[in-house]
């Protein structure tokens, strides 16, 4: 994270004696990235965060294997057709992935168990509903349009308030704001499409008592369940630059040009081998002869995974794309508006239309995406041929 925060009780100096009311010492836990050479936070626990009493291997409850996108083809997946497969962690249905990132969809109204992803950061986008994110750092109340960034190793759980639909972006490393938006010291610059004021993080400790508490842990070796002697949510205070936070897509400030701008202007986060972009309602391109719609394009180094989350997709009219759809346009395929869409939008501008209403979350990956069973089970088999109609 680009700036320092302190929550709850912490001593004046780091790594000095910090005593409980009963005279015992609070237990420090330093959460640090990149071999403690990058961002970190120091948490103070009532009990030892190292004390476990049991460990067991866990078999995933959903299919996680991937298959190549062969024959090479643009794809359309209808997430509206996916039923709940569990909670927002164990019920994630894998849509696509590679060595850098795994993209999954989940819908649930059930609380998850405590979970720690020790493979990488997660970016969980809330498409519909409201959910309470509980963690060792505290609580974040999240709702429709929120990205929730969860640092590697954070013990947390999701508590839905009714039915919740999410897209889970699971990285092999760390997810951060793009470097070009930040100063050399980590402050958001004036040209950035969002800033520190738009980010929401825990504001107070969240303490839960309990003994022999199970935590599901994901590592490169698979899933395990560790049983902790005391509940991990016993942190009385923490400080540092590493913590979970939420950012709402509606706070993204679109960058507008006279003519149509390419996708990098929509970039919101970056991870190892991928970027996340937010396509938000914005004024149309305002050159008097502009074609205010994406041109046919071929991102030669990336696969483009686009989740349509709201608004009107006039550029895709006739393709079957609607709210809840996901398109996958792989490298090796040129894509763009549907036939007739350019003319239709130019006519709409002539009638006085001045802004777009579409909203989408896009993940561009720099290695090919393989396909998961979740995507294959809700695929529209006719999508690839819609440009030829």
- Tell the overall outline: globular
Radius of gyration: 22 Å
Unreliable stretches (pLDDT < 50, length at least 5) are: none
Report mean pLDDT, rounded to a whole number.
Answer: 94
The major β-sheet equals: 10 strands, antiparallel
DSSP, total strands? 24
Helix content: under 10%
Query: In whole angstroms, how far apart are the ends?
Result: 47 Å
Number of helices: 2
Quaternary state of the chains: single chain
* Helical/strand content category: mainly beta
Q: Helices and strands, in N-to-C order?
A: EEEEEEEEEEEEEEEEEEEEEEHEEH
Strand content: 35-45%
Report on this model:
With 389 residues, the chain is mostly beta strands. Helices cover 4% and strands 38% of the residues. The protein is built from 2 helices and 24 strands. Strands 5, 7, 8, 10, 11, 12, 13, 14, 18 and 24 form a 10-stranded antiparallel beta sheet that branches. It has a 6-stranded antiparallel beta sheet with strand order 6-22-21-23-20-19, with no helix packed on it. A hairpin with a 2-residue loop joins strand 10 (122-135) and strand 11 (138-142). The protein starts with a strand and ends in a 13-residue tail after the last helix.
Structural descriptors:
single chain, 389 residues, mainly beta, ten-stranded antiparallel β-sheet, six-stranded antiparallel β-sheet, globular
Short description:
The chain is mainly β and 389 residues long.
Compile the SSE list and pairings.
Blueprint lengths: L4 E4 L18 E6 L7 E6 L6 E7 L7 E2 L7 E4 L14 E5 L3 E8 L6 E3 L4 E14 L2 E5 L3 E5 L5 E16 L27 E2 L10 E9 L2 E9 L4 E6 L4 E4 L18 E5 L2 E6 L23 E8 L14 E5 L11 H10 L8 E7 L4 E3 H4 L13
Parallel strand pairs: 9-15
Antiparallel strand pairs: 1-17, 2-3, 3-17, 4-16, 5-24, 6-22, 7-8, 7-24, 8-13, 10-11, 10-12, 10-13, 12-18, 14-18, 15-16, 19-20, 20-23, 21-22, 21-23
